[in-house]
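Students often ask why we bother predicting the structure of a whole assembly rather than each chain alone. The short answer is interfaces. A chain on its own may look different once its partners are present, and contacts between molecules only exist in the joint model. In this exercise we take three input lines together and write out one structure for the complete complex. Read the inputs first and try to guess which parts will touch.
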Amino acid sequence: MENNNGTTIIVMSGDMDKVMAAFNIAIGAAAAGKDTAMFFTFWGIKAIQKGNYTGKSLFGRMMGVMNRGGIDRIGPSSFNFWGLGRWMFKQMMKAHHITPLAELRKTAMDLGVKLLPCQMSMEVMEIRQEDLIEGVEGPCGVATMLEISDRSRQTLFI
Amino acid sequence: MENNNGTTIIVMSGDMDKVMAAFNIAIGAAAAGKDTAMFFTFWGIKAIQKGNYTGKSLFGRMMGVMNRGGIDRIGPSSFNFWGLGRWMFKQMMKAHHITPLAELRKTAMDLGVKLLPCQMSMEVMEIRQEDLIEGVEGPCGVATMLEISDRSRQTLFI
Amino acid sequence: MENNNGTTIIVMSGDMDKVMAAFNIAIGAAAAGKDTAMFFTFWGIKAIQKGNYTGKSLFGRMMGVMNRGGIDRIGPSSFNFWGLGRWMFKQMMKAHHITPLAELRKTAMDLGVKLLPCQMSMEVMEIRQEDLIEGVEGPCGVATMLEISDRSRQTLFI
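Now the answer. The structure tokens for the assembled complex follow.
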């Protein structure tokens, strides 16, 4: 493995299907021996949150309710239909033995994929490090993300 | 052309405008002599489907109705307005002599752009190879996509 | 700085949060001394429009009303709620001293980030160069964008 052959994935979307795509690509990259990092920003942070209610200010708490984190709580980007889409999607995934999101995330971490939360997003959305799952790196900014991306062969914005 | 100067485009979106952007970039890249591949996953597969109803199980058939494929059937990501957006978009495109999607796709294929369907998406959505248009490669996974991407100068996630 | 270490960002989205992410990454890249270019296409063009009504034909004017440009007029991709999302988002950003979009754009330009409008999108949406803010380059196509991208270390599609 060359040092400049890694994979960086910026996850801005909090949609179930896009988060799934992100983890699938990350797992494939890590399995191929590539240095792999995922940078979670804005809605993407939901995918690495524990799922408790967050926020301290009025706005922060409103955001915490409307945009509650937790990888099992997010729905697909299309055909959500007030939860029906998520349920249908999960049924189809189960019928076809597709790995659930939480397991995909665990596999990614086991393979050494680095999960980086975006500092600015955490501040704006009033999410603290203890609201994130175990094993996530400390908050970092665009500069750090770009340094990693500069050693990557592909950087995806999802 | 260098061997590591290709272009890889992952098409996850099934929105008309994003699919159009994807094909336009692919055509530009192929015309510039770059090895160009498009990997269609999730909703993006609609852009390489023939357009018949798909699916065998209850869920698969529901998905096939709600998410029917065919490149002339998809609408733009914004301002869809129950089909009005697609109609308006097509009118403006016609007025300005913009190439329709189906022709863009043909041009891309004529220029040697490889169209790769994502195996996992086909399984989950119960889409068979015969539901896809002629000239599409066989189903492939993330590993194959990454191998191609590793020889690319830019990999886009659309 | 190497000549092939730039950053190219294709901005197709006209959503406030995605445009903000795009400018934040562009600023980070330019601040790190990287050649940075942003290519605005489709809805993304709103982010470099002055904000006046555009379009000459019936369709062009309809598009100009429904999709009016101007960086302070765009809303977030999730939780828009008929403007509430944008207002709430701006309140949270203000409370946390996050730089407004118009200032981010100015900072990017001051740091030498090149803003390129997509020619085809301008034609389809009937947007003229004088509808765009000062300092934007002339309209260009996919070929020019790819040339710049070929000298970039990462090309993002946002």
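Check your guess against this: Chain A has six helices and four strands.
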